Amino acid sequence: MQAIVESMLDGVIGSDEQGIVLTFNQSAENIFGYNANEIINTNISMLMGYPYRKHNYNYLSNYVNRGIIELDALHKNGTTFPIELSVVDVQVSGKTNFIGIVRDISQRKKREQEIYQLAFYDPLTQLPNRRLLLDKLQDAIANCSRDNKFVALLFLDLDNFKHLNDSAGHNKGDLLLCLVAERLVQSVRQEDIVSRLGGDEFVVIIASLSTDEQTAANQAESIAQKIITNLTPEYDLGGLIHNSSASIGVTMFNGANISKEELLKQADMAMYKAKDTGRNAVQFFDPLMQVAVSLRATLVHDLYVAIQKRQFILYYQKQVDQQGKVIGVEVLLRWLHPLKGMISPAEFIPLAEETGLIVPVGEWVLQQACKTLALWANVPARAKLTISVNISLVQFSKKNFVGTVNDALNNSGANPKLLKLEITETLLASNIPDVKAKMRALQQHGITFSIDDFGTGYSSLSYLQQLPINQLKIDQGFVRDIINSSNDKAIAQAVITLASSMNLHVIAEGVETEAQRMLLQSMGCYSYQGYLFGRPVTLEELVIA
Prior knowledge:
This protein is of the alpha/beta class.
């Protein structure tokens, strides 16, 4: 019998009614770290962790016939660990003794914790994942219904995160997500829940706010603004210094008459509204947003259809020199909806960029512009005209952008020297090494670059020095009131002087009157675009004198 006990994998410990250890098998020695002679004749309580460590005579009788129970045991080295314990009483010579069967469940508990971690936590940031978030949100709904305190749900999305992934790689993007997660946790209270919903989306539950709705909203606004502030300082992504911001949507609730799915939808709508207002902002949910979101969803669907059914058309606007001679055109995208008529580019271009649909649309525009250049090569009056094409940040960031442009040129047979790509200052400030490499590659084929809306973005001189730029375009916002506004005149003059000093061409857009043109000419600007010389028209309507 003793041999059987000694060979068991579970620890077997015998004790008398006073808890004095009588037997201690080999497995018990392995589990607790003691030799049998160190334990026998001592009280069994020395093997138990707090709060189980009690010196009393009926110690083990508390566990008799209770089946298998879990409690903390105490190892010889002073550490506690979980065990399973079952106790039976036996009669020996008229006395009651106890036999305890002990199993170390440390590894099992560790595996259970790992499984729990995988099931409920994001493996990258270690924040609660969507599954755990929904559980916590359901708890918050129940709790606020009981105590009538408001809860705020914050839906956070990083601004321009996709561009970082595309230009610097997913490892840099992952590092940014981890650093953002740390800053989010530091920005809220200990009782608040910060979770990662997926991608660059985070959700924060701010519970136990005021019972007064306006006060609670002010509290939520304060926390959201603190998050905005804390996320703004630059990040060191393994040597890459990166600036990031976030758009936050907020919805408030204090009752159980709304589902967690609906709350997430409301906060998501508010977040998109924050992006529409300029990003790096906080926006609260308003019921009118539901209408706007429905209209947006319809427009996105229509945008997909427009691509498939070629509902886009191109308009061309003349660019002239100081003698009024046409030197080129800018190609402008228009959407002729079969039911809604002409949809403004200001309405659908941002949506196309946000959804990524600007990429196939932009490729089509490039292809059509190159085909037009090829056709004009055989028309003496148009053979030397340039065509300017606007390129979005999303388009330019694609790894195959250079190949896309070259394919459009090669397939059409157009002269690359007559293709001008208009890019924005925002694009230039995004990732200088990537931008420079692509611009250099395209410039080798003869393609030129114009900075559109110059003066409205970062206006950094550093990129002008580093990048192969050919032309600066004075934004129409500075031209519109240049006659009456000394500030606009000063800015336009600064752009012209800068371009001249760097041997860059300069063109002013939005020129509508002869007075504006003459003033610009006197300031040293000799190329113009605007209604004074012609409105955007279709290719068939375009007249070149």
